[in-house]
Amino acid sequence: MLARGAALLEGVMAGTAYDIVIVGGGAAGIATAASLLKRRPQLGIAVVEPAETHYYQPGWTMVGAGVFDRAATAHSMASAMPPGATWIKTPAAEFDPDRNEVVLANGERLAYRVLVAAPGLKLDWDGVEGLRETLGKNGVTSNYSFDTAPYTWQLVQNLRSGRAIFTQPMMPIKCAGAPQKTMYLSCDRWLRDGRLKDIEVEFDLAGPVLFGVLAYVPALMEYVKKYGIALNFGARLTKVDGPARKAWFETVKDGAKTVVEKSFDMIHVCPPQTAPDFVRKSPLANAAGWVEVNEQSLQHVRYPNIFALGDVCSASNAKTAAAVRKQAPVVAVNVLRVLDGKAPNAAYDGYGSCPLTVERGKIVLAEFGYGGKLLPTFPKWLIEGTRPTALAWQLKANVLPSVYWKLMLRGHEWLARPKVLD
Ligand code: FAD
Questions:
Q1: Which of 31, 86, 174, 265 could form an SS bridge with 162, CB 3.0 to 4.6 Å?
Q2: pTM as predicted
């Protein structure tokens, strides 16, 4: 299963600049660099990352609900970069896997023995007509951006009556639960303030289900009923006109397209999401654009000295930082095996987690792997994942941010020991 191993490095050019080049210094790139350097500090690792700031994106749901201060979700990239890694600040523009090189935006080439692709995904703000111009004003917001997550909270506090629309594009997206998490937290606030009765709330989803793993749906549906939310499946947001406070949704029934115009007082938009353009057009991509890896080893299916993890990889897990926490040690082990001329032997089980904030103080802690198999971290008596619990809220609000910054990004593999097959 994990095969495609030994003698993989034949053909890799002599005089290689780096043992490992990692493209992307987000959750996945930094966690992998840290895990590699913990195991073998003398490795020559370059991390290609143009951003000066590293974001803890899972915190943005809490920013949009007034629980976290936005500043707490951003640290300097310099402080996140593991000591011992070389930080290259020019973005990657191209992969040239046949020459074992990454081409940077300034035309420079970085040679590697092993490549780890982790540049995340592209939020396609232009995939909805008119969205970019109006985002962050006219009642149009999104927790998917550091800049606008605080505006969500502003809108929630100010809305007294009218219609609040929450949208979700086609899968896959990062943190598939995030569009509904903000909806529940907004409703909770309006309910507590006695305003919910005057606010018509609807959730327009491009897909056919509320959440992809059925075990969590009953608990979520209880909240949908409690808050009186109207669910519209198969409704894809195509256009927004902020000043006119109007949004257009496309539905397809029996092959026939219908476009429905809706007015809103507030709209929370989750943008369509794709692989980054330079990944989509590269030889690493599958037909859908994602870096095509073996689901267990996270090794590229055509280039054995290339691995991918995080949002950019083709594996069918939920695209979350929680998934990255488990993937990074697997990739670290397998990269070292390949550098040593051996086959990968660590396997990822598809674990991902989505803490569904159903009300302020309670979370349905969805944790699952490939095929929707439930993979709870904690025993049922402590956290029953399919039910809302206060302890899961404490975990998200008070524990996970530190796990991210202090453990995961520093190569401390808390509850993430990789499964080694031989
Ligand atoms: P990212 O962390 O996005 O990092 C990608 C990096 O690549 C960036 O630093 C970027 O600058 C860099 N990059 C891009 N292009 C290039 C290039 N050309 N060259 C070099 N570098 C490049 N996850 C959870 O586990 N739990 C949650 O509750 C949760 N909630 C979320 C809520 C929201 C609103 C959002 C937006 C996300 C949430 N997530 C959650 C998802 C989680 O944040 C992502 O899955 C995770 O950050 C993926 O890590 P990544 O490294 O693949 O991508």
A1: 265
A2: 0.96
* Residue 285: C-alpha distances to residues 310, 318, 321 (Å): 14, 19, 22
Distance from C-alpha of 416 to C-alpha of 7, rounded to nearest angstrom: 28
**Is the bond preceding 179 in cis, omega lying within 30 degrees of 0?**
no
Write out 153-182 in H/E/C secondary structure.
HHHHHHCCCEEEEEEECCCCCECCCHHHHH
In tens, the pLDDT along 337-395 reads 999 999 999 999 999 999 999 999 999 999 999 999 999 999 999 999 999 999 999 99
Span from the CA of 112 to the centroid of ligand 1 (angstroms): 24
Looking only at the bridges linking them, the beta strands covering 140-141 and 199-205 are unpaired
Q: Over the stretch 134-184, which tens digit does the pLDDT of each residue have?
A: 999 999 999 999 999 999 999 999 999 999 999 999 999 999 999 999 999
**3-state secondary structure labels for all residues of 236-289:** EEEEEECCCCEEEEEEEECCEEEEEEEECCEEECCCCEECCHHHHCCCCECCCC
Active site residue 270: no
Q: Is 158 left (phi over 0), alpha (psi -120 to 50) or beta?
A: alpha
- Of residues 187, 270, 313, 354, which has the active-site annotation? 354
Q: Is 175 a catalytic residue?
A: yes
Per-residue pLDDT tens for 315-336?
999 999 999 999 999 999 999 9
Yes or no: say if 45 and 51 are a contact pair by the CB < 8 Å rule. no
Q: How many CA atoms lie within 13 A of 65 on its CB side?
A: 25
Q: Which pLDDT belongs to residue 1?
A: 37
List, chain by chain if needed, residues with CB within 6 Å of any ligand 1 atom: 23-29, 48-51, 57-58, 60-61, 91-92, 118-120, 143-144, 174-175, 178, 276, 278, 310-312, 319-322, 324, 353, 355
**What secondary structure letter does DSSP report for 58?**
G
> 247 near 267, Cβ under 8 Å?
yes
Write the residue with the smallest CA distance to atom 16 of ligand 1.
119
pLDDT at residue 224 is higher than 80: yes
Separation of alpha carbons 410 and 32, rounded Å: 9
Alpha carbon nearest to ligand 1 atom 40, residue: 58
